[in-house]
Amino acid sequence: MSVEENTQEPAAAAAVDGAGEVAAADAVTATAEAAATGTRYPIAPGYRVNVRTGPGTSYRIVRTLPYDQKIPIYCQKPGERVTGPYGTSNLWDNIANGQFVADAYVYTGRDGYIAPRCD
Fold it and tell me: Of 26, 36, 42, 55, which sits with the fewest C-beta atoms within 10 Å of its C-beta?
C-alpha cells in the first residue's frame, strides 16, 4: 500500500550502506558539489510538498514547500514507499539538515539514486 505525500489545493488539481566512512565522505562531497553547481530539482507542478524530519510520513512536518519550488538534493535515503506524480518510490531526498521530501514528488530526470546515500 502506498501513501500520498503532498498537500494539494482543489484548484491546483486542473539511504544506509556498509561503507560508513565512504558514504559520509560521498555525502560531504555531494553537498559541496550541489552548493558549488547550484543544482536544484523542481517539485511536481501543482503540488505543495511536505518537508519532514525523516524518510516517511510518520515523521513530523517541518514546513511545506510552495508551488513551483526547486530544491537541492544533498543525499538520498530509503524509507516509506510513497506514490506521487513521478511514480512510486521508497527514496527520500535530503534537502537540508534533518529535512526530507519524498522523491516521487521531485523531478530528477531518472529513477533511482541521483545523489549519494545519506549515512
Answer: 36
